[in-house]
C-alpha cells in the first residue's frame, strides 16, 4: 500500500495526452544514523539561533526570503508569488521523447527516484496504456518537471506495473570522461592472461543477483558503537588484516581462479589464501599523465 503523503502531484504529459499522477519518493533516509553536534566539555547540544543584528533572535514566522540586488539592498521573494508565475506546464512532467533502454549513462543519474502512481480513476487507463507502450517498445522517456522550486531533468521507465522517475544531472554538471581516459595506457595482453581473466570472470559470475544481501555495514557498526557507549563498555579496535602482498600477475590470476572455482563448487577455501594481486611492475606514465603533471595537475 502506498504511503499517505505524496512528494508531488500534477500531470504526466505526452503531446495532448495528460495523465494525473502523484509521486512518492523511493529513497528511504530512515535507515541512516544521524549524529548531533555537542559541546565537547559538557555534551550539551549545539543550537543554531537565527539572529537579526537589530532585533535579536527571531521566530521562524518572522523570517522571509530575499534577494540582494545591490549592496545591503534586498527585495523580498515570497514562495506563493513564485508559484503564481508558474504555468500549468510547470505543474506537469513534460515528456520530451522516448529513448532506448540503457541510452542514458548511469553517470547522469542524480541519486533521487520517485514512484509514479495514477492519481484517481481518471488517470488509471491512460497511465496503464502509456506503461504498456513503453514496455512493449523497450523504451524510457526523457522529461522535465519543476520540483522543489527547480526545473529538473528526469528519466521515466517502467518497473513492474509502475512508472518510476529518476532525477538526472544536466550534461554540464558531469565531468567529461575523456580528460581522465587519456591517462590510461593501451596495453597488449598475453593470450594466457586473457584466458585466465575470462575464466575468473566466468567463475565469479553472479547467476541470481540478490540486492538484499548487501548491507550498509557502516550504519551497523555505528549502531553497535553507540550501544556499546550506552552500555558503558570499552571500545576496542578491530584487528587489522595483513597488508596485501604483491604477487606475480599470472600467479595471482591462477590462485584467484582456483579459489573462485572451489567456492563455486562449495569447497571451503584455505584461510591463508593470497589477497588480490597487483601488476608485476608499474607502467610508465602516459603522455596524458606527463602533461597533467607538467601543468601542476
Structural features, described:
- The chain has two domains: 8-29 and 84-173, Ku70, Chain: A, Domain 2, CATH 2.40.290.10; 175-297, no CATH class.
- A hairpin with a 3-residue loop joins strand 3 (51-52) and strand 4 (56-57).
- By secondary structure, the protein is α+β, with helices and mostly antiparallel strands.
- The relative contact order is 0.11.
- Residues 271-297 have low confidence and may be disordered.
- The chain has seven helices and eleven strands.
- The strands form three sheets. Strands 1-2-8-11-10-9-7 form a seven-stranded mixed β-barrel.
Spatial sequence of strands, sheet with the most strands:
1-2-8-11-10-9-7
Sheet-strand content, in percent, reads 15-25%
Distance from first to last alpha carbon: 52 Å
Radius of gyration: 28 Å
Which sheet architecture does the biggest sheet show? 7 strands, mixed, barrel
* SSE order, one letter for each helix or strand: EEEEEEHEEHEEEHHHHH
- What value does the average pLDDT take? 80
The counted number of beta strands is 11
Helical residue percent? Answer: 25-40%
Structural class: alpha+beta
Domain unit count: 2
- Shape field: extended
Q: What low-confidence regions span 5 or more consecutive residues with pLDDT below 50?
A: 271-297
Determine the number of helices (DSSP H or I, runs of at least 4 residues).
7
Amino acid at each position: 500500500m502506498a504511503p499517505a503523503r505524496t512528494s508531488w502531484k500534477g500531470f504526466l504529459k505526452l503531446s495532448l495526452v495528460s495523465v494525473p499522477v502523484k509521486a512518492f519518493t523511493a529513497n528511504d533516509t530512515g535507515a541512516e544514523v544521524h549524529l548531533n553536534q555537542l559541546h565537547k566539555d559538557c555534551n550539551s547540544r549545539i543550537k543554531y539561533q537565527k539572529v537579526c543584528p537589530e532585533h535579536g533572535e527571531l521566530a521562524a514566522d518572522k523570517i522571509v526570503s530575499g534577494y540582494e540586488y545591490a549592496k545591503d539592498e534586498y527585495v523580498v521573494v515570497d514562495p506563493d508569488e513564485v508559484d503564481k508565475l508558474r504555468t500549468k506546464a510547470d505543474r506537469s512532467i513534460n515528456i520530451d521523447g522516448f529513448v532506448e533502454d540503457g541510452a542514458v549513462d548511469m553517470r547522469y543519474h542524480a541519486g533521487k527516484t520517485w514512484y509514479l502512481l495514477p492519481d484517481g480513476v481518471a488517470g488509471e487507463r491512460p497511465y496503464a496504456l502509456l506503461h504498456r507502450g513503453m514496455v512493449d517498445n523497450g523504451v524510457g522517456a526523457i522529461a522535465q518537471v519543476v520540483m522543489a522550486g527547480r526545473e529538473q531533468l528526469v528519466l521515466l521507465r517502467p518497473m513492474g506495473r509502475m512508472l518510476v522517475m529518476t532525477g538526472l544531472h544536466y550534461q554540464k554538471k558531469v565531468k567529461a570522461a575523456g580528460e581522465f581516459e587519456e591517462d590510461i595506457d593501451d596495453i597488449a595482453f598475453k593470450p594466457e592472461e586473457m584466458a585466465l581473466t575470462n575464466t575468473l570472470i566466468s567463475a565469479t559470475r553472479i547467476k541470481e543477483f540478490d540486492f538484499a544481501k548487501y548491507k550498509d555495514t557502516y550504519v551497523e557498526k555505528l549502531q553497535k558503537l553507540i550501544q556499546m557507549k550506552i552500555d558503558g563498555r570499552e571500545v576496542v579496535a578491530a584487528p587489522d588484516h595483513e597488508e596485501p602482498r604483491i604477487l606475480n600477475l599470472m600467479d595471482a590470476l591462477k590462485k584467484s581462479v582456483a579459489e573462485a572455482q572451489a567456492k563455486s563448487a562449495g569447497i571451503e577455501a584455505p584461510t591463508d589464501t593470497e589477497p588480490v594481486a597487483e601488476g608485476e611492475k608499474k607502467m610508465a606514465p602516459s603522455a596524458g599523465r606527463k602533461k597533467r603533471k607538467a601543468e601542476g595537475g
